[in-house]
Structures are given as C-alpha cells and as structure tokens.
UniProtKB/TrEMBL annotation:
Record protein name field: Chaperone protein DnaJ
GO biological process: DNA replication; protein refolding; response to heat
Molecular function, one GO term: zinc ion binding
UniProt cross-references to PROSITE patterns, sorted A to Z: DNAJ_1, DNAJ_2, ZF_CR
InterPro entries registered for this protein in UniProt: DnaJ, DnaJ_C, DnaJ_domain, DnaJ_domain_CS, HSP40/DnaJ_pept-bd, HSP_DnaJ_Cys-rich_dom, HSP_DnaJ_Cys-rich_dom_sf, J_dom_sf
Domain of life: Bacteria
Known role: Participates actively in the response to hyperosmotic and heat shock by preventing the aggregation of stress-denatured proteins and by disaggregating proteins, also in an autonomous, DnaK-independent fashion. Unfolded proteins bind initially to DnaJ; upon interaction with the DnaJ-bound protein, DnaK hydrolyzes its bound ATP, resulting in the formation of a stable complex. GrpE releases ADP from DnaK; ATP binding to DnaK triggers the release of the substrate protein, thus completing the reaction cycle.
Family: Belongs to the DnaJ family.
Residue spans of the CXXCXGXG motif repeats: 182-189, 198-205, 220-227, 234-241
Amino acid sequence: MAQREWADKNYYADLGVSSSATDEEIKKAYRKLARANHPDKNPGDKAAEERFKKAAEAYDVLGDPKKRKEYDDLKAMLGSGGAFRGFGNAGPGFPGGFRGTEEEFDLSDIFARARAARSGGGPAEDGGLGDFLGGVFNRGGSARHATRPSRGADVETDITLEFREAAKGTTIPVQLSGNVPCNACHGSGSTSGNPSNCGDCHGTGFTSETKGAFGFSAPCTTCHGTGQVITDPCSTCSGSGTVHRTRSITVRIPAGVEDGQKVRLAGQGEAGRNGKPAGDLFVTVHVKPDEVFRRSGDDLEVNVPVSFSELALGDTITVPTLDNAVRVKVPAGTPDGQILRVRGRGIPARGSSKKAGDLLVTVRVQVPSNLDPAARSALRTYAQAEKDAGFNPREGWAGAR
C-alpha cells in the first residue's frame, strides 16, 4: 500500500494494540487475529474475511520497523482530525517555524527538513515523509519523483498452501492479469522507440507557479509528469508502452512461511508506462491446518499414541517428521502427556544464522477397549501386584482430600 493511503488508516486499532506496543506484542496480536478470522475457518463470512485482510495489512506496516517509523512519523504530523499540525507557529523540528512571510515555501521541503532535523540534521531520504506530503499536495520539489509515474503498479494476490509445503518451502505457478510491456515497441510506446522531451516542461515532468506567498510545483499536464511525449505512438499499445495480458509466473515460497505472511517479488508487478520499471508483486500466503502437525514458532508439535506398557517399561517408538520418520526412546516410567524433544526436526532453518526448530513429541496413552481372557487375567494379576506394592495413582491428588 502506498504511503499516501496511510493517513486514513489506524493500524494499531486494527490489531487491537496501543501505539507503544512492542514488536512481540504486535506479532502476537496479528497471529491471534489471523487464526480467528482465517477464511478457511470462516467460509463465507465476509466480516471475518475483512478483519483478516485488515490485520494482514496492518501487520505488513507495523511488523516492519522502517515502515512503522514512517507511519508513526506521519501520524505525529497529523492532528486527530487528519489535518496537518504546526502551521502558524514554530514547532519542534521546524527551525524558524512557518509564519506566512512573503518568502516562498515548498511544503514538502519544509517537512523533509523537519524529518532531517529529528534524525540528526542529515539529508532527508527519498520516499519518506517529504515525498509522502508532496504526493498529498501533488506539489513540491522533493515530491517530484513521487508525482511522476516512475514505476508500474504493485500487484497483490493470494495463494493457499498445504502445511508441509509452507514449512519446507515450495514453488508454485501463479496466473496474473495486468499490464505487461508491449512487444511491438518494446515498452517505449513509440513506434521508432525514441520518445521526445516535452516542450512545456522541458523534460522535467513538472511546471512551477506562484500563488501569493507560496511557490508550487505541479505535474505537467501535457506529458502527465513523464517529461516525455510520444509523437509516433505505437499502434498496438496506443503509445502507453503496455498491453493487458494474462501471464503465468513461478513464485518461490521460502521455507517456514507463516499463515498470513506476505512474500514480495520485486519487479513482478505491472509494467510501467513507456519503459518505466515494473511494480512489485505481493503474495499473501494462507496455510491449511495439518492433521498430524501443529506449529509453535519454529517448533513442530505432534501427539503420538502409546500403550501403558511402553511408558511404564520404556521402549523405542517411531515418530513422523516433515521428512523421514525417526526413532525416539521413551524412558521407563514416562508419564502420560510427557513431551519428548527431538532437536533439529522442526521447521527448516532459514538463512545461515538461523537454526532449525525442534520436534516436540507428546506421548498419549491409549486404553484398549477389548481384551481377550488371557490379557484380562494378566492385567488383573498386575493390578493386584500394584496394590500389594502400595501404588496409589491418586496419592497427593488434591481431590482425594
């Protein structure tokens, strides 16, 4: 989502956290909402689907430290009603203030200087608040790059994966419909492949005007901010450099992707007009529940049925993993519900600095429903031996008092 749309959003409210929430609190809030409102758990529930989308959008911004800082800076600039604060009097970060003198002011430059002052006096970075505010006003020196259509549109799509595909990583074909470069003119929009500089803005893409105490820059209406005009438009794309077409791309999903997480593919969005770079593709991944495994961070959890004798006497049991089954030793006297840890058999490692998760095996006693006479006789003999040895399964239990 473009920064200019953040002004109308309250991402903290969408996740149900305060603006001072820690990164971990934000992550937990998102996971809780994603689980509760996942489309697979709420088929046909449009309200739940909308809550799921809002939570994913909010986490995409607040879960990224850089985006969160820009979002917080923007909200600090806006009043509670969405109006910009600080005009009329000097405020923090605005050296000298704004007092309506006859000097020309470029609004986006003012905010860019304010942001630079807060960060220690360095130059304002492209794509920050200066560019955002310039985009709001459609004016401004530093906003000039934002007002010009310098790239194609970003594209969002959704895919659904099996649990094990998401855990181990996979590649999946995705069908997309949108603008792609025109083959006839190679994306230039010009039959000759040589667009001309706009005569009205001299190739800059914007024109300047003065209104009272303000000096404004606006996108050139002749070339629509591109700085170039097509004098010999391509007959296939009518001079846009793009055509609408359905295409198939292969998306590589990294190992360990979580439900609701977005995967960004740079340059795989819609093609830009007249040879400009393509936008990005954002793929939201939905993960189906698994009938055997559950996920806890990078660990996998699995319940394994066992017999009483296997726990009482000890044994070695076979346990499934994401790959091949492994043999796990059960010590004698292991209680029902005990968790046995198998290191390195959880979610695969992502990157050289990351370790694979563990497999957490919970043993659960299964009681036989039908016993033959010999088994019943042996069990009665064992039960009597238990009593003779003084074993009381309810010893120490609070309910026994």
